[in-house]
Each structure stands twice: as C-alpha cells, then as structure tokens.
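tool_call: predict_structure(chain=1)
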Amino acid sequence: MALKLITPPATEPLTLAETKSYLKVTDIGDDILISQMISAVRKCCEDWTGRALIIQAWTLWQDSFPRRERDRLPHDGYFELPVDLADDSQRVISIPRPPLQWVTFIKTYDVGNQSTTFDAGNYLVDTASEPGRIVLNQSASWPSSLRSVNAVEIEFAAGYGDASAVPDALKQGMLLWIKLLYADKNWLFELGESTAGLIEFNYSDVPPPVVSLWSPYKVYSLDMR
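tool_result:
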C-alpha cells in the first residue's frame, strides 16, 4: 500500500494574523518564520493524528482488492456461522486520512498495464465512518486479472473543509506548539515571564500539552485489507 498527496491544502488551518495575535507579535520581522511554523506544525498534526485538516486530494495505491485469508478464519464447519459473515470484510476498503469527503475514482490496471475506471455504481462511499470506507455492492464484484503491483488506484479527497471546520482542539494544539517553538524569543512573553520549562517541552516528539489536545482525534489503527 502506498499513499501519495497529489493536491495539498489550499490554505492553512491558522492564519498568520490569528497566530501573531496568539503570540502577541505585532511587527512583521518574523512573518516568514511564523508562516513556516504554521505549515510545519499542521503537517505534524496531520501525521500524528493520521488525519487531514483542510481539504486535500490523495491517491491510495494497493496491490490488490481485499480477499479472504483462510489462515485467519476458523475451519469450515468448526463454528456454525454463515460463510458470508466471514466474507463481509472483503467488500470493504478503509480509506486513510479521515475525514473522507469523497472518492474521485477507482482505477484498476490489468497485466498489460492498461487502466480501467471502476464504475462508481458498483460501490458505496461511506463518509460517516472514521476512517471512511468504500463498500462494494452485494451485486457487484471487484475486477480480476490485474497486475501484481499497484493494481488498484484510488483517488479521494479528505479533510474537514475550510479552516472554520477544523476542530478547535486541533487548532489550539497547533497554536500552543508554535508558541513553544517560539519560546526562545524572550520578548514574546508579557510581564517578564520566564521561558524556563517551556523550551523543554520541545524535547518530546509532540509536547505533552499538545498531545492532550490532539489525543481524542488520533487514528490509532487502520486495517487496509
């Protein structure tokens, strides 16, 4: 499985103006630096949570469609369960980087490397679940006779929408981390506040106060079968 960003977000969840207001910065000397921090911390937020914030387009490549793995199922007759129950998961493809907004297309590549667009009428796009899913209709079947590598190409859009739709906790965590990264500017803090203890937060991969804000949104597992 490979995941590739093809259209990055057009804007950031935080504007330069609101970030400078949070930092209590009034001059323009560090505008470029602050803008770079916004972008860098947003990418860290997306990677750590496994989410997309502002609408963006991705391509998901898979070697094949989900298929039954006999070694993961009980032997036939061992339990009195309908076989269909074990087969249901084969009809579902989980899409990373929630929230899923839409699926643009599913293409398959045959052994001659010729592409075919899979009819959208054959599947349902579930944007209510997290992660989002593509669910094959009961009357449909996945294409066969495909090449062995990167045979399935799925283009999709993910993200909450524009900046106003991004959860406040994610944006507040971004603002806090930017402030921690900026903490070596002693003049940033009013009333002669000391930066002692603030810079140390940056020794962690993600500062603990930021983790506390982002944790409810973290995607902990994703079964791509």
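agent: The beta strands are 2-7, 56-62, 92-95, 100-109, 115-117, 123-126, 132-136, 152-158. Proceeding to next step.
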